[in-house]
Amino acid sequence: MTGGWPDVELIRMTLPNALRVLLAPGRGTARVAMAVHYGVGFRAEPPGREGFAHLFEHLMFRGSESLPGGRFYDHVHRVAGMANGSTHQDFTDYYQVLPAAALEQALFSEADRMRAPRFTAESLAEQLAGIEEEIRQATVERPYGGFPWPLLPGVLYDTFANAHDGYGDVELLRRTTPDDCAEFFHAHYAPGNAVLTLVGDVDPEKARDLIERHFGDIAPRPVQPPPDLGEPEPAADRWAAYSEPGIPATAVALGYRLPDPERDLPGYLAHVVLARLLSRHGLGRAGWPRPDGSCGFFGALAAKDPDTLVLASLLAPGVTPEHLVTAVNERWDEWADTGEVVGLVDEAIRGLRSEHHRRHGDLETRCRALGRAEVLFGRAELVDELPEHLAGVSASQVAQAARALRSAHKGVLVIEPAPDRTRPRPAAIRAPRRPEPSMRRGDAERLARTSTGPRPLPPLGPRRQPRMTDLSDTTLPNGLRLVTVRDTRAPLVETRLRMPLGRRGWARPRQVDALVRLVGARTGSSRLAQAIGGEFDLCTDGQWMDVSGFVPIAMLDDWLSILADVLVTEELPALAGPPAPPAGPGRIPDRTGDNALRRHWLGGYPVDDPVDLAELRRSVMSPSGACLVAVGDLDPESFATSVEKALFSWQPAEARPDTGLTLRGTEDLLVLRQPGLAEVHLAFCAVRPFDPSDEAARYLATAIFGSYLRSRLATRIFSRGRAGYEAYSGRGAFLDTHRAYVRARVPRGLVTGALDDIRGEMRGLAVDPPGDAEVTSAREYCAAQLLSAFDSPSVLADLLRQTVSSGQEPTWLERLPGLLHEVPVADVATAGPDLFEMRHPAGVIVGDVDHERFEEDTGLRVTPVSDPAI
Question: At what angle do helices 695-706 and 825-836 cross, to 10 degrees?
């Protein structure tokens, strides 16, 4: 993939109706992202209309003239696209990401609701119920609900626009009528208050024609003037304290006014750097949690002035909110000295620039960011200029920002443990502001009468195939496979190293976990990568050991040096017996079950023998069978030379007898009892060796059975009203072979019903094989879904690693969408039962399950297993 965002200049146009358009072509992606930003958010709501902007966002998905009754998503779901919207302080955005072939359908759907939305009492009632649940989960059901947003603005600000939240009061919102919605639409959703952005596989001339065709006849309307957000700085610190039962510690959030980015962008960005410093380096107090610092409640440069710098932290035992404020003030005093922050600022800026490049290498993120910068500041170019603006922030500017915060008055929000829950007293419900009756009567009906009639949804355009140019696949002298793709969307390299654990690692998952933690701690790999503006994550899932990361292209050799230290580290101690599980949340049940399966299929393994971690490292961290994937702005040949030089001392261990394993008990159904789990985790699986010649048929058969929106499992669960559990199918490498599996997460009371559903659909694959219509639907969805692999360098690197480790060639990602359209229906019908028909299900069940009772209830024979080293 040779195209990239820096290669193409941003293209602007404005339609006669004042709709602003941004085009940002990016070659080779095969998908397109589209966003429409309207210059209205919840700070534009007048008193009495709290929460209306958010309600209206929901309503815009529920019906328009040509797509009534919730049909908006039909074209999106059919081609594995996504569509959503969000409401912010000063804008509301609606966005879609779909195959380039569906671009006209996406434009049609957005234009239809900009031209002629439909508001009914029924859709209002439906969306109000959903919003009530959303508010309850965000502010009541969640621990520390409302912290720091939406509670903190009410502490720091006085004016209604800045202090009220975007949720509002459901009882007040229930007074909303369809006429109210039509009024809001006319006031704020005019073309002149909107920005349309397209990013991705877009031909500019064709895109212009389509945009003019679908948006050009939308009538212009006057644009409501923006709200007055002006507010003086607070004259003193402001405190608000609330309480909540059941929380483990007191939470404190500090809110400071930020400089106006339109008038003082360097000053604003100096505060962005300062927030990063506090998040990374904390308050310098032993045992104190590091505060989470951020600019903006929804991210940096996501709101007009006034905006807020937020510091949020849980308190350590014995620490009071006053202690925290004192410590923050002392940190500002320390960092007010330029000499104290010079090195810290350089490192923080490297990280911020890299993260910005990485985020905006993604199709959707870039599209939404361009539209947001345009609607807020009139400068979409700011998205691409921001890394250089950050590079220009000096240590003296950051020190000046620290001095300003030290003297600034702030808002302090406290939520502390207590028997009763307290929150701000709701304001008295006010009657919504109403225009003169002559202006409002029958607004919704009048909107419907002004329409020109329904229009047909355009057909899909020609399919586009993704392309990876400058793809290199080579093997180094030490046995390491190296797969590289040149991708210029960001000045970074995405790196993914995968190593199979082999027999010793598969049989000792807890020891491998201990090895990962010890090597990471001794080398300091994560911290060192952060210092150069990158990321380095070493982890294991029981099947593989993985290194995932990214690095600025200029620091690539430094990142490879960190990798070499991890792979060839000093001698490590021996472990006597299985190590304790890692601290923190409970283990993931699906992984625990897979670990139990591996040990069982390997015939067990002694769990109390001493383990030499150095020997284990040499066994599992070996270049033999390993693959390093790199996607980024690099030259494949020079990168291979750099890798070979950095890893010259990484040599394979002695030959390991890990191929051709003799597996035992693969037909057994294990039960691993774990009391306390609220749900039972089922994994039925069967050995199904890899067959490249049949992969397209197997891919579609897996989807039809249980891995996409319209799969048989999903349809059965929905039709039987079993919304309380989920189940899906898949395939993947397991030990030195492959397996097909069905996973389900089920409340204890639904296990028998879930088993009936899964086994019933397994039998149905042979009795009722998929026909032309079912296969056609799966072809269209799956081929389109595969195109998402090229949405960003990060996603592409992930999926290349998965593709190669599963036994395919890297070009498989390019070829598979076309193969799915070619494979015969009969082959798909045969592949289904070959993969998933299991007359006597094998696999593992993890949960609070008594195996004897389970056998009585289900008639299945099971094998109980214990958990000494899983």
Answer: 70
